[in-house]
Design brief:
The complex is a heterodimer. By secondary structure, chain A is mainly alpha-helical. Chain A has a domain of 78 residues: Cytochrome Bc1 Complex, Chain D, domain 2 (Orthogonal Bundle), CATH 1.10.760.10. Helix content of chain A is 37%, strand content 0%. Chain A has 6 helices and no strands. In chain A, α3 crosses α6 and α5 crosses α6. Chain B has a single domain, classed as Methanol Dehydrogenase, Chain A. Chain B contains 7 helices and 39 strands. In chain B, a hairpin with a 4-residue loop joins β21 and β22. Chain B is globular and about 60 Å long. Classes of the chains: A mainly alpha, B mainly beta. At the A-B interface, loops of A face loops of B.
Chain lengths: 177, 626
């Protein structure tokens, strides 16, 4: 039984490895998606209609590569200067459940691209569009809105103890085998 | 709860004699300065033993009390001492609410109310509304309000909540600053704007949070933005029409800093040509900070103003080798021209965001047997400095709380001795640095009583871990390059209220507080000291012993500056704005997430439980005896 399991494991790993996520190595356009209506409210006189979606949103959302790129850009473009590592500071927290201007990929993308009136700058002229989508994907992940297997890990160096998955197994702590 | 070094004296009702004097003084304030000097000496000498009388503010900078409160620091010497004594150690326990007023803004209320004649004036945090309340009518109804409608985008470049530290009154006008970089003069009677000068540009990250100071017909204003790569400056605006008379930068060539032939710094390290350029990597001075967002004092006899300079930017010191002049220091300048007379650098090549902008209290005292004109500064880096204010010489520098980021001040060279073990840098995590980036004491101003010789210091007790990271300069966005994570300091109390014996250079008593004491303080001739806590308690303690005499729970945490005044009915009142926020309270006013230890530049980690202790608010409380 044990041997059979040991043989099964590499096989499973190999199968999983085949299902690599798809990655756009050459972004279509550096200039942007053009006009993109993104309501920031769910109140619509005359009844709610389905909100418009952008076909880019789906290809970036929850994509491990794009989210890890988003994490890198989050520091490089000084997003972290205001929003810290998600807890906020000069700007609001991004890791909680409160979304002032909407939580969808499209809303976050529009917030970064066009800015918001109470202090969020407009980065549309500073950051290529695909990188804004990567940032949006990472921002959604900050609040736990992405599969944990794909979302980037937090940085551990400032923490006083390693992250939980790197700590010794609590069940065997203090006991020698 | 407190370490008491002085025996507690029997509580005496010392109020009556001093009160009679204060009333006499109020009759004519504009007489000969010789008379004022004599009067001041008499006041401080009459009621106290000789030892305390040896230290007093210069009479010209601290005229006899007229019962008003026309500038946040009370007077040019910045003593925050009131000669009113109707409320005293014996009866303060009877204080009750006279009236309250909602500012309508639930952000950090750091301002001091002003009282001029029958009116009280309040400036709110962004959107910086100014209210005038009529104290002569029951309930102090609103007389007028002025809404400057600052640019909402300014909120996005204000480093640590959208606070305002108050207005200033002179010649029938109220002067105040807006977050989006305007200085505005209002008619104090009608609230009508007289002039409005735009001096700060939010698109490069400039904001204004400080209270202006009016000296000889000029309104002195400095900018904020040390976390945004903003080059610091102080400007003098003409009080009549608002035009800029002079600008003195905190970095750059000597001509920009207003350094000329009159500049005579006391120490070798501050001598040389264009040090504001040569002590930086090429061009770094242009985005190097040195902002002036704190307090200015003025000595009319020397005709000098004294102001500090903020931290160098970015925080990560690896990115700016050199002494980074003229950041984290103090300037003495000619009050008319702004020309620099001397400079002293508290923290050369600052490693830990130790802004040098705290208040300076001007005092005359005997130092080693000789009378000296001094300036007392409880500094962010943890030392209480006594400087000769005519030369900038450091007479003493004593730690007034836990400090391990440095090992003292070399009194020969004047240089802070940095502790190499606590040196931060790129990719390096350094733990347990005390004090934190917010300092042993931040902006929250202290008060000095000539009756006790004690300086009352509201301050923090925090330590931190730091990790330097790379950072890109993008105009109008943060330029910090440091991850910070703050923790409570030794003892676990995150704040303290220390009464410092200036002549003995040691604490007389210390009160521990759970949260940082982020409020200002005021001390009176009734020997009562008032301050607030971030839970919302407004406290009165004995100026001699620190014994808690009275407390009142306000609706939100207190980070404001208490004042006391004589109302139109002749009785003494005490006023405080309640409303938590500021850097320390940003977790509540900005609704930040405590799961991120680095939120609010690391302050949130030390304030995780503040959301359980208080909520945002913005209410004025005024107290009086029944």
């Amino acid at each position: 039984m044990r041997r059979a399991l040991a043989m099964l494991l590499p096989l499973t790993l190999a199968l999983v490895a085949c299902q690599r996520e798809e990655r756009d190595t050459r972004p279509q356009s550096a200039l942007g998606s053009g006009e993109q209506p993104t309501p920031v409210t769910t109140l619509e006189p005359g009844g709610q209609r389905p909100s418009p979606t952008d076909n880019k949103a789906a290809s970036f959302e929850a994509n491990a590569f794009h989210m890890s790129e988003g994490k890198r850009l989050f520091g490089w473009f000084n997003c972290s200067g205001c929003h810290a590592n998600g807890g906020g500071g000069m700007g609001p927290a991004l890791m909680d459940e409160k979304w002032i201007y909407g939580s969808s990929m499209e809303s976050i993308h529009a917030t970064i691209r066009d800015g918001r009136p109470n202090g969020m700058p407009s980065f549309g002229q500073k950051i290529p569009d695909d990188q804004i989508w990567e940032l949006a994907a990472f921002v959604r992940a900050l609040g736990g809105n992405a599969p944990s297997s794909a979302a980037p890990q937090r940085n551990d160096d400032m923490m006083v103890h390693p992250s939980e998955n790197r700590l010794p197994d609590a069940a065997t702590l203090g006991k020698s085998p | 709860m407190k370490g008491m070094l002085h025996p507690a004296p029997a509580r005496v009702d010392a109020g009556h004699g001093a009160r009679a004097l204060a009333t006499e003084n109020s009759f004519r304030t504009g007489i000969l300065s010789v008379m004022l000097l004599a009067c001041g000496l008499f006041l401080s000498g009459a009621s106290e033993p000789a030892s305390a009388a040896a230290i007093a503010p210069p009479a010209a900078a601290a005229p006899p009390d007229d019962g008003q409160w026309t500038m946040p620091a009370k007077n040019y010497a910045s003593t925050r001492f009131s000669e009113l004594s109707e409320i005293n150690e014996g009866n303060v326990k009877n204080l009750q609410v006279a009236f309250t007023f909602s500012t309508g803004v639930n952000k950090g209320q750091e301002a001091a109310p002003l009282v001029v004649g029958n009116n009280m004036y309040i400036v709110t945090p962004f959107p910086n509304i100014v209210y005038a309340l009529d104290l002569s009518r029951p309930g102090a109804p609103m007389k007028w309000k002025y809404e400057p409608n600052p640019e909402p985008a300014a909120q996005g470049v204000a480093c640590c909540d959208v606070v305002n530290r108050g207005a200033a009154f002179a010649n029938g006008r109220i002067f105040f600053n807006t977050l989006d970089g305007h200085t505005i003069a209002l008619d104090a009677n009608t609230g009508k704007p007289i002039w409005n000068t735009h001096i700060g540009n939010i698109n490069i990250g400039e904001t204004i949070t400080m209270a202006p100071l009016v000296v000889k017909g000029k309104v002195l204003v400095g900018n904020s933005g040390g976390e945004m790569g903003v080059r610091g400056w102080v400007k003098a605006l003409d009080a009549g029409d608002g035009h800029v008379v002079w600008t003195a930068y905190g970095t750059g060539p000597d001509k920009d800093v207003l350094i000329g032939p009159d500049f005579k710094p006391h120490y070798d390290m501050d001598r040389g040509t264009d040090l504001g350029v040569t002590t930086w990597p090429p061009e770094a001075w242009k985005i190097g900070g040195g902002n002036m967002w704190g307090w200015i004092s003025y000595d009319p006899e020397l005709n000098l103003i004294f102001h500090g300079t903020g931290n160098p930017g970015p925080w990560n010191p690896d990115l700016r080798p050199g002494d980074n002049k003229w950041t984290s220091g103090i300037f003495a300048r000619d009050a008319d021209t702004g020309a620099a007379k001397w400079f002293y650098q508290w923290s050369p090549h600052d490693l830990h965001d130790y802004d040098g902008i705290n208040e300076q209290i001007l005092l005359d005292m005997t130092w080693q047997g000789k009378p000296r004109r001094v300036l007392v500064r409880p500094e962010r880096n943890g030392y209480l400095y006594i400087l000769d204010r005519t030369t900038g010489e450091v007479l003493s520098a004593t730690a007034y709380g836990p400090v391990n980021s440095s090992k003292g001040v070399d009194l020969k060279t004047g240089r802070l001795i940095a502790n190499p073990d606590k040196r931060t840098g790129t990719g390096k995590v350094v733990r347990d640095i005390c004090p934190t980036a917010s300092g042993l004491k931040d902006w929250q101003p202290s008060a000095f009583s000539p009756r006790t010789g004690l300086l009352y210091i509201p301050h923090n007790n925090l330590c931190m871990d730091e990790e330097g990271v790379e950072v890109n300069y993008i105009a109008g966005t943060p330029y910090v390059g440091m991850n910070v994570r703050m923790i409570p300091g030794p003892g676990g109390n995150r704040g303290a209220f220390t009464a410092w014996d200036v002549s003995a250079a040691k604490p007389a008593w210390v009160l521990k507080e759970n949260f940082p004491v982020w409020s200002g303080t005021v001390v009176t001739a009734g020997d009562v000291v008032f301050y607030g806590t971030m839970e919302g308690w407004f406290k009165a303690v004995s100026a001699r012993t620190g014994d808690l005499l009275w407390q009142f729970k306000t609706s939100s945490g207190i980070i404001g500056q208490p004042i006391t005044y004589r109302g139109p009915d002749g009785h003494q009142y005490v006023a405080i704005l309640s409303g938590v926020g500021g850097w320390a309270g940003a977790i509540v006013s900005g609704d930040l997430d405590p799961r991120d230890a680095t939120a609010a530049l690391g302050f949130v980690n030390a304030m995780k439980d503040l959301k359980n202790a208080t909520t945002a608010g913005g209410t004025l409380y005024v107290f009086r005896l029944p």
